[in-house]
Amino acid sequence: MTQQSAAATPMSKEMQDCVNACVSCHSVCEETMSSCLQMGGQPQMQIMRALMDCSEMTRMCADMMMRRSPLANEMCMICAQACDMCAEACMSMPDDAQMMRCAESCRRCGEMCRAMAGATM
Question: How far apart are CA 21 and CA 34, in angstroms?
Fold first, then answer.
């Protein structure tokens, strides 16, 4: 199948769900970064790095799946790792509702990306 005909093929429900999870996770990470910046303080720097990595990875991963990049499977695996790291970082602040929301979104996205990494695009 050529790249052009692959792009014309409708996305599978699983791929569309994964794209949606990535877009949602990207959005939650961005919101959480804003919340984190308002808190300030040194401990948040490690969380900020994880949020920034996850935000960028989920955006890029969604873009690559939508354009049917031949690197999308590998990107999904790296994205899952970024999501796992971010979820773990956010879990370090269990009393913060925004952090817990972000951790949950990251966990869900990571699971979907791991599943998608094993699929053929």
Answer: 20
Residues 116 and 65: beta-carbon distance below 8 Å? yes
- Of all helices (H) and strands (E), which one includes residue 4? helix 3-8
Distance of CA 104 to the CA centre of its chain: 11
Which two tokens mark 6? 């692959």
User: What's the predicted TM-score (pTM) here?
Assistant: 0.87
Count of positions (residues) in the chain = 121
Angle at 117 between CA 115 and CA 121, to 5 degrees: 105
Q: Tell me the CA end-to-end span of the chain in Å, nearest whole number.
A: 11
pLDDT in tens, 59-88: 999 999 999 999 999 999 999 999 999 999
